[in-house]
Amino acid sequence: MPVNSLLKKVLGIALVVVKSARFEGGSLIISVRPRKSRLCRCHECGRKCPVYDCPPEPRRWRSLDLGGAMVFLEYALPRVECPEHGVHAAGVPWAHHASRFTCDFEDQVAWLCVHCSRSTVAQLMRIDWKSVGGICKRVYDRLDAEAGNRFDGLVRIGVDETSYKKGRKYMTVVVDHDTGRVVWCAKGHGKAVLDSFFSLLTDEQRASVRVVTADGARWIADVVAARCPNAERVMDPFHVVQWMTDLLDDLRKDAWREAVKAERAAAKDAPKRGRGRPRKGEEKPESAAKAVKGSRYALLKNPEDLTAGQRASLEKVARENKALYRAYLLKEDLRDVYKSPDLETARARLEKWLASACRSRNEKVRELSKKVRRHKGAILRSVELGISNARIEAINNKIKLTVRMGYGFRNIDNLIALVMLRCSNLPISLPGRC
After folding, report:
1. How many whole angstroms separate alpha carbon 324 and alpha carbon 362?
2. Quick one: pLDDT at residue 264?
């Protein structure tokens, strides 16, 4: 086999004529040019155009390594004059027009980024750490264009926002429940951001959306009602129960503060004990504030997951703090709504819960009952469909893991590209493999 053909076969270079090869400073430099059918083509439209000028020095593209040697493709890239897109550098079949890396090299970098950290990829591929993000962005744009319209066939979607940069910034994520893939991701959150997603959909695509799962954010409900009137909004069970668990934790803190104040007042009025060790049989009275403070996990965990110590702590709360225990029972009754075997049972349990909550002596519980009542239809619809935002919460966890693995991202576009590569089921293949 001729050396030129061997190099093309080993490096996976297609539609290329190899002119020569040489070693330069430990790197393999391969002088190439496109085939005649691919010469002087506009990289935007692919039209064959007249040459405008030629550079004095050739350009180099980093290719996949050959053994321990770095490989570069070298070609004097001319500029062409396209009647539609003007004067710009001609396109080449082995690389993106804005990149100094070959397509195979970028595919391998993107595949590695999906499976390991960005710093590891930079060290393995011997490139700059900052170059990895740009490569992921170009590979995602190319794969997304080849995959077609990702918004086709959307029926049930989930919408949520997740934080990055230590919780100071947010990004909005839309997931297809039927396929489990992320279909859209953008910087920021709010009505304007979500409205930009629905603006990308055609009238037929918006009409095909039947179910939208989300938390209780009003901006999501308002945009869905305005842009997708045929869609039903479904409340995520986790967020509904979380409203009650957050309130329960606030009530526990209030009970702890009251117990601390009571103990301090009692300590002022109580006679002071003498110096020295306590007498035999004399025991220090148990602190009620400490018992309430230590009951956090017993109150928030599911009953079936409680340890023996947590069960004892919960029994003590039931004896000594009736108001806090009633709030705990309300939390469990709200969980039971989502365990209902059918819609009618769920409706009856929710009505019973609302009746108990609105009669509560605690103002915070009564306010929560009003909030739950506003979302009553969406809550019952989630029970009927058996759907939740669990999938999108898992995606959010994967996004946070991506940020931690990359030790943060300065460019949000590169972060979104990597999230889409990991979570949108785009087929990233290693070079030379099926």
Report:
1. 10
2. 82
Each domain of the chain, given as residue ranges in start order, spans 1-100, 101-231+396-429, 237-262+289-385
Tell me whether residue 1 is exposed, middle or buried, using C-beta atoms within 10 angstroms of its C-beta: 0 to 12, 13 to 18, 19 or more.
Answer: exposed
Contact 96, 106 (CB under 8 A): yes
CB 242 within 8 A of CB 217: no
Tell me the pTM.
0.80
Contact 160, 389 (CB under 8 A): yes
The per-residue pLDDT for 1 is 58
Q: 59 CB contacts (<8 Å, ≥6 apart)?
A: 74, 75, 76, 77, 100
Name the architecture of domain 101-231+396-429: 2-Layer Sandwich (3.30)
Could you please report the per-residue DSSP string of 324-380? HHHHHHHHHHHHHHHT-SSHHHHHHHHHHHHHHHHT-S-HHHHHHHHHHHHTHHHHH
Q: 126 and 63 in contact (C-beta within 8 Å)?
A: no
DSSP label at residue 190: S
Residues 248-281 have pLDDT tens digits of 999 999 988 888 888 888 777 767 766 777 666 6
User: Residue 434 — pLDDT band, cuts 50, 70, 90?
Assistant: low
